[in-house]
Amino acid sequence: MKFWLLLGLLLLHEALEDVAGQHSPKNKRPKEQGENRIKPTNKKAKPKIPKVKDRDSTDSTAKSQSIMMQAMGNGRFQRPAATVSLLAGQTLELRCKGSKVEWSYPAYLDTFKDSRLTVKQSERYGQLTLVNSTAADTGEFSCWEQLCNGYICRRDEARTGSTYIFFTEKGELFVPSPSYFDVVYLNPDRQAVVPCRVTVPSAKVTLHREFPAKEILANGTDIVYDMKRGFVYLQPHSDHQGVVYCKAEAGGKSQISVKYQLLYVEVPSGPPSTTILASSNKVRGGDDISVLCTVLGEPDVEVEFRWLFPGQKDERPVTIQDTWRLIHRGLGHTTRISESVLTVEDFETIDAGYYICTAQNLRGQTTVAATVELS
Prior knowledge:
Blueprint: H1 2-23, H2 60-64, E1 68-73, E2 76-78, E3 83-87, E4 92-97, E5 101-104, H3 107-111, E6 117-121, E7 125-130, E8 139-149, E9 152-168, E10 181-186, E11 192-194, E12 204-209, E13 214-216, E14 223-226, E15 230-233, E16 242-250, E17 253-256, E18 259-264, E19 273-278, E20 282-283, E21 289-297, E22 304-308, E23 319-328, E24 334-344, E25 353-361, E26 364-374
């Protein structure tokens, strides 16, 4: 009897060990307090990427609107959109935060020193006010804060503001032009613009050749239309030259722009191509002499001249006259000739020596010299 009792107890013990082995794997260390309380899951989640503020962000629109506000009336201000439409005659008031704010606005307002425009600087913001607005005021208005270190200032690219404003005026679909005929130069190495800008953003604008009469399509490859600039020739060539005009349609009305003469130019870009020539290299005492400095260049690139001459240190009186003109060299090629003439009357010993002319444009400068002796 005892034998069977002992055998039953032994079998029961082995059965209990088998059950315990199914739930407690072998060699598992005891869990410490606070360890592995989060249950693993098979759910997938997108990793969160932390947002980083970048002062040099390529989002120029957000950056350009950062400091500009527009007065809306009743003491309210709001940040202007990239483009804003106002009725001609309305007052425009813009403010930009900053203790030293600079402004840019349509060149038309600067050209005529327009008294309708006022710019003021207060302790905390700059203010631009334009009264009695007209369609001709349509254009880009922008501001930026200046960062100064002593007398040296630079533009803070992180604190700017900009908006393009259309001033809509009855009977004026195009921004008025100061002339009835204008010239557009076509350079093979840069874009050319026929400036048919509109005052109504929704206007449909087309480009037309006068002779032979036909519409010139803005195909997006050679020519594109930008309502803030006009028709842009991306790669001008000689076939584009001729007389063109624009036509705008909006609200059941249409209007024709001024005419534009497109002239093809084939002059290399760069510092002035300069020559110098004296009326004589040997002069007798008492004679008059002239020294001519000539530049051949692009029609729309201005040239400035500077002179050094032998009698300069003795304050010798001379006459200097600067002129320029356009010449057509066939096949529609147009060149600008800029000239500066220095004249010395009653030639003396102190006038003998080197006459040095320096011609400068936006791309650089060139210096040439001629020698004049007393015979």
